[in-house]
Amino acid sequence: MPSVYIKTYGCQMNERDSEAVAAQLVAKGYTLAPSETVADVILLNTCSVRDLAEQKALRKMENLAAEIRRDRPEVVLGFMGCMAQSRGQELIDRLPDVDLVLGTQKFHRAADCLDEILAGRRDKIVDVAEEPGSEATIREHLLYGNAAKNGAVDGAGHGPPRQVSAYVSIMQGCNQYCTFCIVPYTRGAERSRNIPDIVAECRQLVAQSVKEITLLGQIVTSYGKRGLGETAVEGGASVLASRLVSSLALPNDTGAHGGTRPALQKSPFVQLLDAVHEIEGLERIRFTSPHPKGYGDDLIAAYARLPKLVESAHLPVQSGSNRVLKLMHRGYTRERYLGIVEKLRRARPGIGITTDIIVGFPGETEDDFEQTLALAREVQFDNAYIFKYSPRRDTPAADLPDQVPQKIREERNQRLLEVINEIGKRKYSALVGRRIEILVEGPSKKNPARMTGRTRCKKIVVFDGSERHRGHSLDVKITRAGSFTLYGDPVILA
Ligand code: SF4
Asked: C or N: which end of the chain has fewer Cβ atoms within 10 Å?
């Protein structure tokens, strides 16, 4: 059978989509090639969030066409994902060596399309049409895919090692239309899977030794707000899962910390968290990416009453200036954002808070930027992903006046980075000497002789351990803090 190599650009959603495509192809008999130089099929799963990511994928494909196709003209080349969705046929017009362009709602058709091309029934395929129900198609996992590909074995010498942590796609698309963001155009409108299907997938992963699940979507806190997909129920009937959601709403909310709270209207997302939390054997639940607008009191209360929901929140603020937040169409103010942070810290003392910030958004003045610096200092983020604004075609922000010159974007990026690094250094150093629980994920990427795990706040801890620790929750004593990495020793209990 042909072998396939998938190169992924961009976010965790893309990583997850690539994994699901790889699993689908393996199920059809394809093998995973260890590198592009020996693969029969090379797919680039693309990102459109920044221009740089698009240019990288285009250059990569140009090189593949020039180098690989020259020696092996039968190799199939394809684009998938966001850039495939937004550019479609244009990609083949520009790069005639490309055989396949597969949009974001068509990942599940990868095997069929490749079969057609490899069998010579079709020369080129461009499929970027919308497809109802496609949100439920990203469900196959390739838990041992990368490990198997790299020939890894477990500590006892047989088989690839267990995967401890897995991503589960719960929804696709976004209706927020932030003015800088291309996602609503490349991923389409919000479509959510139903709770029983998601829970079944999570249960299966836990049965395969997964301990931590990250619920994934472009705007997970909007999960289910526009209805849910269909689900099959016992007896063969099919019902709209939105009905199941309302039946899950509880009149009262008995917290893990005791006491009965007054009735809280639970959003579909919190109902999903409740349902996943019930899974026996699952130790940790995370989610990404949320939107600050979605942190209602029900979600904040969930942090207080669901122990498996880790004390870690990614709250993308983007700017500290209300004027810029309005231009971005973010739907919250600086004050509302700070209020959420305060409530979260009250619900879960010690919660780790990370964020995304864009510097140099069109019209951002020095005063606006200083408000962002001040907000970063006030919140004391555990970490922040800083992006220099990158105009994306067809987004409203690209046409806004007062685009900020590149030099100023660079300079603001540097200044903010210094603030974030300084806060991070202080926060990480404060953990030295403390005893912290980690979930061990596997060997350290930088030094495979050592192991890494993550704290519940998602901080990386490197320690001297072995394969037998993989998948275990351990207490470690932090001995040293590096740049956004901790070093520790396992605590030997008396
Ligand atoms: S909420 Fe996130 S995915 Fe949706 S438009 Fe805004 S930045 Fe893009």
From this structure: C
Token readout for 316 is 């993308």
Q: What is the pLDDT of residue 144?
A: 62
Q: How far is the CA of 325 from the centre of ligand 1 (A)?
A: 13
Taking the centre of ligand 1 as the mean of its atom positions, its distance from the CA of residue 328, in whole angstroms, is: 10
Atom of ligand 1 nearest to the CA of 187: 3
List strands edge to edge, sheet with 383-388. Answer: 312-314, 352-359, 383-388
Taking CA atoms only, the protein residue closest to ligand 1 atom 1 is 176
Q: How confident is the model at residue 331 (pLDDT cuts 50, 70, 90)?
A: very high
Q: Is the pLDDT of residue 362 over 50?
A: yes
What is the Å distance from ligand 1's center to 183 Cα? 6
Distance 154 CA to ligand 1 centre (A): 40
Q: Are 298 and 306 within 8 A, CB to CB? A: no
Mutating to test ligand 1, I would choose from 187, 291, 356 the residue with most ligand atoms within 8 A of its C-beta, which is 291
DSSP 404: P
pLDDT category at 159 given cuts 50, 70, 90 is low
Of the candidates 218, 134, 227, 224, the residue with the CA atom closest to the CA atom of residue 177:
218
Per-residue pLDDT for 243 more than 70? Answer: no
pLDDT at site 232: 39
What six digits make up the tokens of 292? 């600050």
Task: Calculate the alpha carbon distances from 50 to 47, 82, 166, 406, 458 in Å.
Answer: 8, 11, 26, 14, 25
171 Cα: distance to centroid of ligand 1 (angstroms): 13
Measured in Å, residue 310 CA sits from the centre of ligand 1 at 23
Which atom of ligand 1 is found nearest the CA of 330? Answer: 6
- Which position has the token pair 């200083």? 370
CA distance 414 to 421: 10
Specify the residue with its C-alpha closest to ligand 1, atom 8.
Answer: 181
Q: What is the pLDDT of residues 461-474, one digit of tens each?
A: 999 988 889 999 99
Q: Judge whether residue 492 has pLDDT over 90.
A: no
Q: What is the CA radius of gyration of the chain?
A: 23
Distance of CA 463 from the midpoint of ligand 1 (Å):
37
Nearest CA to ligand 1 atom 6: 178
**What are the tokens at 394?**
């067809």
Q: Tell me which residues have their CB closer than 6 angstroms to ligand 1.
A: 174, 176-178, 181, 183-184, 218-219, 291
Is 50 exceeded by the pLDDT of residue 344?
yes
pLDDT above 90 covers a percentage of the chain that reads: 80
In tens, the pLDDT along 167-183 reads: 999 999 999 999 999 99
Distance from C-alpha of 30 to C-alpha of 1, rounded to nearest angstrom: 5
Is the C-alpha dihedral spanning 119, 125, 128, 131 positive or negative?
A: negative
